Amino acid sequence: MRYFWVEHQYSVAVFLGCLLLIALTNLWVLRKRLRSYPAPQDGPRVSVLLPARNEQKNIVACVGSLLAQEYSNFEVIVLDDQSNDKTVSVLRERFGGHPRLTILHGTPPPPGWIGKSWACHQLVHHASVELLLFTDADTRHHPRTVAYAVGALTEENLDFLSVFVHEEVLSWSERLVIPVLPWSILSFLPLVVAYYTPWAAFSAANGQFLLFRRSAYEAIGGHEAVRHSAVEDLALVRRVKSSGLRWRLLDGSDLVRCRMYENYEQLYEGLTKNLLAAFDYRVGWFILIWLWIGVFTFEPLIVLLGHLLGLGWGEIRPALWSVALSLGLWGVAYRRFGYPVRWALFYPVSVALMVWLAWGSLMRTLRGRAVWKARALPRVRWRWW
Questions:
Q1: How many whole angstroms separate alpha carbon 380 and alpha carbon 378?
Q2: Order of strands across the sheet with 209-213?
Q3: Whole-angstrom distance, CA of residue 225 vs CA of residue 165
Q4: N or C: which terminus of the chain has fewer CB atoms within 10 Å of its end residue's CB?
Q5: Residue 162, CB-side half-sphere exposure with 13 Å CA sphere
Q6: How far apart are CA 231 and CA 210, in angstroms?
Q7: Helices (H) and strands (E) in the chain, counts
Q8: Is the CB of residue 169 less than 8 Å from the CB of residue 257?
Q9: Which contiguous run of DSSP H or E holds residue 354?
Q10: Distance between CA atoms of 372 and 117, rounded to whole angstroms?
Q11: What is the pTM of this model?
């Protein structure tokens, strides 16, 4: 039994070493940022599509940054998704009559549709151009973001492009939780494998910035094909990959910024909506993976605590290696995505909070209690594997 326990501890250290290797490899893949591509002043026409529901606080800054794009051939279409605040009135007051801006009024989502996907579906029907850029109302864009994105799409001959954005964090709940999202992609998704293998599970996208060639969007069935998913960005990129289309996830964090949630309540509601959906509602895998994340995070710390208390739990050497590798892994991710490296010291708290949110996501989703922006989400069909 002791032999198995020691071997297990070394296995945890080896696993963390593999995650660090994946992260370092991904840093090399992501070395070329979106900004490094040519930024044409003119090119294919782009429809920037913006669903907005109760975005009174964000809409003016977001649309203002989009209308200021240094790219000659684009339009911005905003769809008011049944807002009950002043989203439309403040938008009209600030930008009413702007030649590049169209404001639409959305209809309620039909049965079985997630609200955001239905809003995007409506937006596409008012865009008849070659390139479709979906973005969120809480984003802010550098004046040349669209130009750089078109340059990247053209130079890499892509059908679909998504980017990492800089996720702003102000409260402590945001600081502890939000950086876990890019950390998870950097650590668990080897982009070299993702780009050159057919497995749809090896893919990722960020719904805050999705740029499609219209032909590719239509080939995968658009938002209608993913109308049930609470994480339409992941569902869309999986369909892109399954269809054999070319895609990339690039680093645009110096061009686009976003504050996803303003407090713990919004954070809890948003992530409990998304976490199980990100696993395609596969409950068995969801439970096993979060249990394993808990094991490789907390087991080495518990062993070290036992030695400090003189209890002699396990072997101290693999525990020290595991903690050092964890700190290195989190430090690499925090530095790459623009967060203070010292925050890596709080990684056990971050993981504990994520496990709590994962449990909440499991319970709320299976019970049909997931909610987003005052809308109950449709009950989903889940499976074990």
A1: 6
A2: 101-105, 74-80, 46-52, 131-135, 209-213, 160-164, 247-251
A3: 26
A4: N
A5: 20
A6: 13
A7: 14, 12
A8: no
A9: helix 347-366
A10: 13
A11: 0.93
Q: Give buried/exposed letters for 15-39 (b at 16+ CB in 10 A, else e).
A: ebeebbebbeebbebbeebbbebeb
Name the residue with tokens 């950086």: 179
Helix boundaries (H) for 129-208: 145-155, 172-177, 180-188, 191-196
Of the chain, the end-to-end C-alpha distance in Å amounts to 31
- Cα separation, 137 vs 135, in Å, equals 7
Q: Assess contact for 274 and 374: CB atoms under 8 A.
A: no
Angle between helical axes of 347-366 and 316-336 (0-180°, round to 10) = 80
Tokens coding 110 = 């039909």
Provide the residue-wise pLDDT of the chain in tens; the chain has 385 residues.
566 667 888 999 999 999 999 999 999 999 989 999 999 988 999 999 999 999 999 999 999 999 999 999 999 999 999 999 999 999 999 998 899 999 999 999 999 899 999 999 999 999 988 999 999 999 999 999 999 999 999 999 999 999 999 999 999 999 999 999 999 999 999 999 999 888 888 999 999 999 999 999 999 999 999 999 999 999 999 999 999 999 999 999 999 999 999 889 999 999 999 999 999 899 999 999 999 999 999 999 999 998 888 777 778 899 999 999 999 999 999 999 999 999 999 999 999 999 999 999 999 998 888 887 778 787 778 888 8
> Running DSSP on this structure, what letter comes out for residue 51?
E
* Residue showing tokens 């070319």: 246
What are the structural domains of the chain?
A: 2-27+279-376 (no CATH), 34-165+206-262 (3.90.550.10)
Place of tokens 């151009």: 129
For 140, the token pair is: 């802010």
Is beta strand 160-164 parallel, antiparallel or unpaired with respect to 247-251? Answer: parallel
Which pair of structure tokens corresponds to residue 62?
């977001």
| CA 133 – CA 139 distance, rounded (Å) | 13
- Distance of alpha carbon 45 from alpha carbon 43, whole angstroms: 6
